[in-house]
Write a structure and sequence with these properties.
The complex is a heterodimer of chains A (about 325) and B (about 50). In chain A, about 60% of the residues lie in helices and about 5% in strands. Chain A is mainly α and about 325 residues long. Chain A folds into two domains: about 160 residues, no CATH class; about 60 residues, no CATH class. In chain A, helix 3 packs antiparallel against helix 4 and helix 11 runs parallel beside helix 13. Chain B contains two helices and no strands. The chains are: A mainly alpha (about 325), B mainly alpha (about 50). Bound molecules: zinc ion (ZN). Zinc ion (ZN) binds next to loops of chain A. The site of zinc ion has 8 residues of chain A, from loops. Chain A: It comes from Paenibacillus vini. Chain A: This is Zinc ribbon domain-containing protein. Chain A: Keywords: Membrane, Transmembrane, Transmembrane helix.
Amino acid sequence: MDNKIPVQIKPTIKTKYVYEKLRICNNCHRYTILREDNCTFCGKPGLLPLREKAAATVRRTMRNERLAAILITLISIFFGRSFQEMAIGLAGGVILTGCLWFVQHRLLPRAVSREIARMFLHDRQRIADGLIANLDRAVETGKEDKARSYEMLREIAALVHDDTIRSLQIILLQSFVLRKDMELELEPLLQSRFDPDLARYIGELAKIKRELIKDRTFRYILKYEHEIASLERGEDILAGVAGAAVRLKRYVLSYSDFISRYARLLPKERFLRLYRVIATNPNEPWTSLADEVYRIYNEKYQWDADFQQITPRSISL
Amino acid sequence: MITYVCLAILFLFVIAKSIIYWRRNKNSIAPEELDRRLVLQINRDSDNHGQ
Ligand SMILES: [Zn+2]
């Protein structure tokens, strides 16, 4: 893994809802989730967000209904036998068409949501085909531009929750030089199976972005602890994750057994943090972790100046 | 006479449309629900493809 490439990864375009990422081509009516200017299928510009497309459809239907109302009004005027009847026809038609317009106008936003739901069902296969084409394109792009390929997979993965896509993302991420300032993610990449590349990625994040390691990741690591330990430098990964867990007292309490297994491998700065959590909270149920921490402290850090500033309220040895 | 028939038809048309819109409005779909439906649909479909 020495031939890692330096890359620039663009940040994700955040939308409030996932479906807002999906767009439809106004020309060939195919769907895409990729942030591209032109349609993948027909190559033409004119990709519309679903809400815009649905709103256009609803507005067209409503306009047709109003045209029908106007047409009926005109017929009623045309067949009026006297000026009075024609006036009644005109007035009645205007009032009723106005009522229709008022109701339509008030209910437009909800009608648009219904239209979007209808599009999901009606275009089910088309949406699936669009996403498969997106995936093919992302894989194809990976031959020339790995960073762009990763960005594309990340866009697809926002909607398609699939271990194969996550694996592809991890493989790409493992070919990059990861930096702290990159927009990286972890929880969306966790899989239901053991993936050595994912374990190595978690190990790297434990060094550069440990704030991404949260409960779901700890549970993943605990589930596959044996498999990870048998990897080359697997213990370093596990120690890194234990080091990430000591940043919060809540994690130390929840994963105390796991941390106690790797406390000895923690670098001094992480061990100091763990020691501080334990020493300043003597009444918490640390189980065997406290014993292990004080044992390591006595063996390695008893005379260390950094540890002298922390005064344990009660040492339970 | 036809004028009044036309107005009656228009009246019924507007009433019928209003009732349809009003009933749809009552069971409207929140954006969260749209998201849930789409994610479920896509991932069920991709599961079937994977099998
Ligand atoms: Zn197109």
